[in-house]
Amino acid sequence: MAKLCPNLKRLGTTSVGFAALSHFPGHSTRIWGKGFFQKLEQVNRASKAVLAVALASLSINFLWTPIFAWGLGAVFLSDLPDLWVGLLMLMVTPCTDWYLVFTGIAGGNVVLATALLPVNLVLQVLLLPVYLLLLAGDLVELNVEILLSGLFWILFLPLLAAALTQYSIRQIKTERGERGSLESYQDRISIMQIVALNLAIVFIFATEGSILAENPALLFKLLPPILVFFAVNFLLAYQVSRWLGLAYEEWVCLTCTTLARNSPLALAIAASAFPQRPLILLALVIGPLIELPVLTIVAQMLLQIRQKRCWKQARR
Description:
By secondary structure, the protein is mostly helical. The chain has helices spanning 8-13, 15-36, 48-76, 81-91, 98-105, 110-135, 144-175, 186-214, 216-244, 248-259, 263-273, 278-307. It is globular. It starts with 7 loop residues before the first helix and ends in a 9-residue tail after the last helix.
């Protein structure tokens, strides 16, 4: 490990710690915004396509991906258990923000993707401790109390703030005799979400660039399993979409939902649960440097497929 990461001890208390802590306010604000406004009423719940995409997405994200991620770690990272755990934490947390951007870029069904967001968020919060205990319990020592405490401060507290905010605004509108939904406040909240997301991305690249430069071997260790993950899940989403007879927009939604990962969330939790294991944090810190370019390429590939009319919806 020392040869692979010569500056590991110093990074564990400086760059990595700053990267993890810098994600907290931005990520919490985004969670608050998501809990505040979810336009799920725009989705036709009776649609067979919506049900098919939802079930396929949940199955791939929470049944297939954890087992697949563990297998990738066993094949590529068996000599580095901390890096293995970092890869596992990265893969078992589906994205809850920028996958919407890539879904929109590729011309996918953003409304449906938005409807899947709260389900993905709740399930990953509930299942992450389970995955770590079952799949990583033999790799690193887990302190369940610290892990649950981190989940409370990073996820449950912002969601509670979201619920209280929504309730308070409804009470104020009722006292004023105002009617209608809370969408009049959406523009204000959306601006905060965009700013928070941009700040998180800036912090990621501002801190990860130096980490990668000082420890280039980490990139070459993580690159193969992450690229295999993206390639296999892309093909899996394609085959499942063909089998279900999904339209292009629904295929894009399923692809982006099952490819994008929630690295800021995983990093924030790892920083609180594994403060003395910087290699786990480094795996999560470097993840977006690979993920974002890959998602950009995937979005352009999807657009090319649509432009060339290569996607033909199968009969349901």
